[in-house]
Amino acid sequence: MDLEQLQKLMDKKKQIEEVIRGKRDLVMDTYMEVGGELSAYDQHPADAASELYEREKQHGILELMEYELEKVNDALERYNKGKYGVCESCGQHIEPRRLERLINTTLCANCAKEHKNYYIRPSEEDIISPGKVFGQANDTELAGYDFYDQKNDGAWD
Hints:
Elements: H1 3-28, H2 31-35, H3 45-80, H4 96-101, H5 109-115, H6 124-127, H7 130-133, E1 141-142, E2 145-146
Antiparallel strand pairs: 1-2
Helix pairs in contact: 1-3
């Protein structure tokens, strides 16, 4: 592998680490420091809810960035072992354009297409199908009555 790919991985790692540092500093501030209030008692409940939402959002972003950093570190480890750019499923080289866009991918485009439907769907989908939720317009009843009055071409009495 060439040094250009290694430099891209190192730059990506540095970028993610900077974002993580900023997010950690942001979420480590106490509620009072973020809101600029001396007491939470006089805060309107909607203001407190907005602050809580923003803090939770920042925690979520931080978690995603930490996961992204793990993936970049895995890519660096694969680079050091000489396996970077090699599909872990089929062993073929990952397309260069794919590596440009997804620097820490572990699958070639063909294997990624095969694995995309590999996710486990909720068990509820086995019971309820979207097509059976709503009946036909002619079969629809409200409170035991036909939705459409046949005598008045759909108009209500």
